[in-house]
Amino acid sequence: MKKIINEPESFVKETVEGIIAAYGDRLKLLNDDFRVVLNAHPVREGKVGIVTGGGSGHLPLFLGYVGDGMLDGCTVGNVFASPAYSKMYDTICACDHGAGVLCLYGNYGGDKLNFNQAIEDADFDGIRCTTVLGADDVASAPIEEKEKRRGVSGIVYAYKCAGAAAARGMDLDEVTAIAQKACDNVRTMGFALTPCIVPEVGKATFTVAEDEIEIGMGIHGEKGIEVKKMITADELAKIAVDRILADMPLTAGDEVSVMINGLGGTPLEEQMITFRAVHKLLSDIGVTVFMPHIGEYATSMEMAGLSVSIFKLDEELKGLLCDPADTPFYTNHNK
Amino acid sequence: MKKIINEPESFVKETVEGIIAAYGDRLKLLNDDFRVVLNAHPVREGKVGIVTGGGSGHLPLFLGYVGDGMLDGCTVGNVFASPAYSKMYDTICACDHGAGVLCLYGNYGGDKLNFNQAIEDADFDGIRCTTVLGADDVASAPIEEKEKRRGVSGIVYAYKCAGAAAARGMDLDEVTAIAQKACDNVRTMGFALTPCIVPEVGKATFTVAEDEIEIGMGIHGEKGIEVKKMITADELAKIAVDRILADMPLTAGDEVSVMINGLGGTPLEEQMITFRAVHKLLSDIGVTVFMPHIGEYATSMEMAGLSVSIFKLDEELKGLLCDPADTPFYTNHNK
Question: Considering the entire predicted model, what is its pTM?
Answer without folding.
Answer: 0.98
